[in-house]
Amino acid sequence: MSKPLPLILDCDPGIDDFIAILMILAAPERFNLLGITVTGGNVSLNYTAQNALKACELVGRPDIKVYAGCPEPILRELQIEDEVYGETGLKGVDLPKPTMALQRSHAVDFLIDTLMTSPQKVTLATTAPLTNVAIALVREPRILDHIEEIVTMGGSMTLGNITPAAEYNFYADPEAAHILYTCGKKITTVGLDVTHQIVTSLEWFSRLDALDNPVAHTLATMLRAFYEYDMKKFGLAGGALHDPCVIGYLLNPALFNGKDVHIEIDTSFGIGRGRSIIDWWHKRGLPANSHVFSEVNVEGFFDLLTDLLARYGNRQHILTNEENT
Ligand code: BDR
Ligand code: CA
Is 127 near ligand 1, meaning CB less than 6 Å away? Predict the structure, then answer.
């Protein structure tokens, strides 16, 4: 069996980031999670940090290291999106206050130190405004040599979700997104074009209920509270699971289909702020700086997610990374 992938998750939980954490921790044979870094985003940094800790504790992994990072974007004021996931970011549930503590180091220091000293290249998954990652890149550009792949939830080929033009993560910190997409590495981009296809349904909630385990139950409760938001706002058939798509891709890339293209991030202060201008037809003749997905196997994704959550009902199958080596 191949060794687990060294992974760092940069996130802003938020219900969908929370699920991304649960997915990673359900698959220790595939991921060696070196740490979780958090930023202000869906809700303030205080909440996102607490929510990351809560996710780890919910699945019995208080050994996971969580690092708080930037509370605000590089240049702009943070636009909290608490109407989406509720005031705490975890609408619908009231999980116990975490007993595990945040690490003392700043997320940006952790990113730089870990990447620069890792014996193996590390995969970076990002599901939040890109502030932590961009600042790490500016402070120590050599980290790029130590990164295997950067997989980012953000952007859209068509419409936005926070403005007509922009997806939230890129809108929240467009300068950070610009730094990432001009860093010289090809970024794997999971945008709204695919995440709006991955939506919850009453039928899937029943599958979660049937798993009959406390983790799946907690998730179903959260997702039921969020079920109608995207339906009312975007006419989707359920609630979109944006960030889990990043982990779904890492676990099974064959579920996604896309192509290499050039992306430019709009860093203006007008209506185009944060828009990802994706040159799908190569009109500009610029070298590709991203692999962007346009298709996803919806059924395959939900089977994968359900199987991962089912593991929490049979905890002896979830080994920690130490137990796994
Ligand atoms: C992204 O913004 C946040 O609301 C979600 O957590 C996701 O990362 C979707 O636009
Ligand atoms: Ca997120």
Answer: yes
